[in-house]
Fold:
Amino acid sequence: MTGSRRDSADGHAGQAGHAGYAGHAGYAGHAGLTVQAGDAGQAGRAGYAGQAGSVRVRVPATSANLGPGFDALGLALCLHDMVEARTDRPGLTIEVAGQGEATAEAGEGHLVVRAMRATFGLLDGQPPGLAVRCANRIPHGRGLGSSAGAIVSGILAARALVHGGAGRLPVDAVLRLASELEGHPDNVAACLLGGLTIAWTGDGGAQAIRLSPLHTVVPVIFVAPEPLATETARGILPESVPHADAAANAARSALLVAALTSAPGELLEATRDWLHQPYRAGVMPVTADLVRRLRAAGIPAVVSGAGPSVLAFLVRPGSAAGATLGSAPSSANSPGAASLDVVDSTVREMGIGWDISVLDVDRRGATIQSVTPGSVPAGGTSQ
Structure:
């Protein structure tokens, strides 16, 4: 594997990670457990019962909010990171290829490692060593769930490396832990469960419902050329909003669920937002301009997560909304050619290097497979 590598005997717990992987110095919460970065380097705690071999986890990119569904709606996308981990080597080794290669220098601050440490702490304690290899395709700091993918992959990898881990940390507990580490449940729910998710935080922690969006609805992502820290995008939001705006967003959020699952002709109206996108336009004006241009052309478009990337929805020919999006006959499995032409011409007019990808919805969510050293897995089992 090409990329960056870091070998550490003590874990370099004080090093900071990628801007998109920022978080707490340690994990605190979830059943009262606290795992500090300094504790994680202790080798071979009593009670750890690991499994032989290694584990490989695949996690999807995610887009949260989807316009009006602020901190609640999430959609899993067919763009994936792969993480392989093993615990039979002393010290800490991190290898990263692809997106975020510099995060290999983060040591114990790397978000995959932090998530694994938190999970080991909930189960049997820390292993004598940890080796992590990441092959990343999800862009960092672009509003496509790279931090959620790191957290979910770390939790699932650690759980799989502990005997009986899946039984002791079922999916609902994984979601709660992932949400606590992330700070909000929308991205981690979609990453873990796949499809379209509605997430919320109740008295017992994060919960989510998974829905299946229509196969005729096709996500298109416009990856921004430069990153934007989530903290920056969140920091610009006001403490309160007008009651009328909140009511309008509540109605559009409900309509959006219906549009994605049964009424795609309502997608343009359903993706209107008053809660966060207008306030964030000042820190991402190019993103706001692209969303405005696409929507003016009849393409349902929103800021992806906290930005600065953009998510749009096209509809495959033959669906009820095909005429609404101006689609022309094309292959049975591709969005309308006319819609793609509108997208291309809109981006060309801006003269900015957006990276455009037409993706499918990931309907499986995070998958995991145990592998032996040197083998190449095929497929996987859903969690």
Notes: The first helix runs from residue 37 to 40. Residues 5-46, 321-332, 372-381 have pLDDT under 50 and may be disordered.
